[in-house]
Amino acid sequence: MIKREDSAAVIEGKGTNTRRGFLGVAAAGLAGVMLAPGIRLIEIAQAEAPQGGAKSTVRWGMLIDTTKCQPGCTDCVTACQTENGLTGGTRPTDPQWIRKIEIKEIKTGRTASVPVMCQHCAEPPCVDVCPTGASFKRADGIVLVDRHTCIGCRYCVMACPYKARSFVHEDVTDQQPDVPRGKGCVEGCTMCVHRIDAGNPVTACAEACSKAGHDAILFGDLNDPSSEISRRVREVASVQLRADLKLDPGVRYQGL
């Protein structure tokens, strides 16, 4: 039996309309909203999500080897912060897209250090609960948040069982041009989607882990039987966090 020292989480969803567009729709159809509360939100939530260059034949994922993940090492966390323009603050309100947690097996005392981020579920609860469609899943399995559509309700934060989403409480400065962020919005790990869409299929965390010589994070296409990640998943036992929820996360863990 494994005891968590720090609980984990997942989530995200779908969307397209801007916040200004949403307010415009609400204003234009005020009578309809009053007669049938929720109708407009449902219509917006059902809008087609932006897909970029995503293809349904691909499913991006990660395999994390906890036997190689070094206790005390935060290279993946630092790389994520640098790549995405996060402050790296330690306050409870500071956004954090990836975090290290320590787990301990009660019977044997064996410990492991584990990076946890958005698990990019095939059945993301964050998408299900989002009233505006801001949380969405791309065709390639990456779960994202459209900051223009997000109204900051934080339903997705509550729905995520991996605690993988953060709310931006303060103004954002010195943003990375490829990673737009905004106060009043929810955000989380994007699997470095800006890199993928630019033709660089490796996440910042996996790259940093490899450069440090640990090679604990493997990123790739789970749908490609010839990819290294698919081969490893077939040959080596791995688990999904909270597999009992049947969310089919795209992040797998080896050695737990």
- How far apart the termini lie comes to 10 Å
Principal-axes geometry comes out as globular
Task: Give the helix level as a range of percent.
Answer: 25-40%
Low-confidence segments, ≥5 residues, pLDDT <50? 1-47
Radius of gyration, in Å, reads 19 Å
What does the main sheet amount to?
4 strands, mixed
| Percent in strands | 15-25%
The number of strands is 11
What is the name of the CATH class?
A: Alpha Beta
Number of DSSP helical runs: 9
Read across the widest sheet, the strand sequence of neighbours is: 9-2-11-10
In terms of structural class, how would the helical and strand content be classed? alpha+beta
What is the overall pLDDT average?
A: 84
The appropriate CATH architecture is 2-Layer Sandwich
Q: Might you state the CATH topology name?
A: Alpha-Beta Plaits
Number of domains: 1
SSE pattern, N- to C-terminal: EHHHEHEEHEEHEEHHEHEE
Q: What does this 3D model show about the protein?
A:
By secondary structure, the chain is an alpha+beta fold. It has one domain (2-254): Alpha-Beta Plaits. Helices cover 25% and strands 18% of the residues. The protein contains nine helices and eleven strands. It has helices at 19-28, 30-35, 39-45, 75-84, 125-129, 155-159, 193-197, 204-211, 228-235; strands at 2-4, 60-65, 98-105, 111-117, 135-137, 143-145, 165-167, 186-188, 217-221, 238-239, 251-254. The strands form four sheets. It has a four-stranded mixed beta sheet with strand order 9-2-11-10. A hairpin with a 5-residue loop joins β3 and β4.
